Amino acid sequence: LLIIPAAVIWAAGPHAAVHPATYAPAPYAPAHPAPYAPAHPAPYAPAPAHHGYCDPKAPPKCAEGSDLPYCVVDEEYPAYDIANKISQDALFLKKYADVADQSADDLVQDITKPQEESFDYKYYSGASKGPSPYDASHWIGPEGYLCPSDVDYAKITRAVNVEGYWRIILQHIPEGYGYGHYNYTQTTRLETCLFPDSACRLLAP
After folding, report:
1. What is the pLDDT of residues 175-199, one digit of tens each?
2. What is the three-class DSSP state of 60?
3. Region 159-182: what's the mean pLDDT?
4. SS3 (DSSP) at 70
5. How many Å apart are CA 129 and CA 95, to the nearest integer?
6. CA dist 14 to 21, 24, 29, Å?
7. Which of 180, 120, 192, 182 minimizes the C-alpha distance to 156?
């Protein structure tokens, strides 16, 4: 087995051409760097500032120390913003209505303004004066309301709605003769019970 390769080499002779292996470079494959993706920092989001009026269920400053669901006097009332909104609303006059001079003559059946103003509730006992809670003294008496109440016709500035949210009530009473020098007010009849949780006349004790 070792002789056969030697004979093959001799037969080729000393002048046999030697052909080196053909050069075949590897195909060019340029390196592509990863696409540039600059780092974007998270957008700046400052912590929200705390404002009492951001919570619509939080009582405004005008209601501090009061258990009433409305304010009449409000030192922080946004009068300028109200005037601005009125000036921008072309349909405002079609949506606005008020009876500024309200009284029992307009709002209470069978009761006149002088009668309402004369009620002093001297007859009111809160319960029957007799031996039974159902005797006549509980059912009869002079004209008046069922329960002693303080009645006022006021222009409230803020109030709680049925959902428990505080809302600003439009009251525009401008000073001087600038734009919108007309008064745009909303008058409300307020009847506040003088003795909460007490018995009321004409109702079963």
Report:
1. 765 555 678 888 888 888 887 777 6
2. coil
3. 80
4. strand
5. 51
6. 20, 28, 43
7. 192
